Amino acid sequence: MSRRPRHTTAETRQAIFDAASGLFDTVGYSNTSMADIAAQAGMSSANVYKHFPNKAAIIHFIAEHHFQEIERDLGPLDLARPVEEQILADVLHLARRLSLDGTPQILDVLASTVFDEPPVLRSFRGRLAARFAAVFAAGVARGELAPGDPVASGQTVVEALMAFTDPLLLVRRLTTEPGFDAEGLARRLVKLLVAGLKHLP
């Protein structure tokens, strides 16, 4: 009797990812059970629970994948580029990725079901703050910005740009505010924030 081939943890989690993503997209998050995900993935419910304690853990895992995709699409930083141009390019990418290219269904689910900031979103925003800090450090080094703490500036700007650095908030605004001009708001906010960084006390 041949033994069933063993799968690595990564392969099993990917199978659960694929099964859950498909079910959430076709029948909806609330209509999908852990047993449904297990059946779609071709494994036992016990095996699914071994990797994820509940549906919330699965949806956070899927969301992290989407956040990483968004970050990869930002591309490498050009630290020789003027600060306002680089930050605006990043913020516009976030806005366009969600508003022009369509909102990933998983973010719709998160936006409608999650009220406390999930850990995957905190991690995403932390990585954006580090990216912005590198831009600000380069700006300070060449005299474009006033001397200051680039790390603190990165964290502050991420908070000030919450409408774009929090994909769940952006999804809510795009779906509840017809005519919301994400790009226009992004341009105004970035211009104002960078002007402030040029004249820190």
Automatic annotation (TrEMBL):
SUPFAM superfamilies, sorted: Homeodomain-like, Tetracyclin repressor-like, C-terminal domain
Domain HTH tetR-type intervals: 10-70
DNA-binding region: 33-52
GO molecular function, one term: DNA-binding transcription factor activity
Segments crossing the lipid bilayer: none
Swiss-Prot/TrEMBL keywords: DNA-binding, Transcription, Transcription regulation
Domain of life: Bacteria
Keyword Iron-sulfur assigned: no
Listed Pfam families: TetR_C_27, TetR_N
Record-linked Gene3D superfamilies: Tetracycline Repressor, domain 2
Keyword field contains ATP-binding: no
InterPro entries tied to this protein: Homeodomain-like_sf (IPR009057), HTH-type_TetR-like_transc_reg (IPR050109), HTH_TetR (IPR001647), Tet_transcr_reg_TetR-rel_C_sf (IPR036271), TetR_C_27 (IPR041478)
Name this polypeptide is given: TetR/AcrR family transcriptional regulator
Source organism (scientific name): Methyloraptor flagellatus
Taxonomy of the source species: Bacteria, Pseudomonadati, Pseudomonadota, Alphaproteobacteria, Hyphomicrobiales
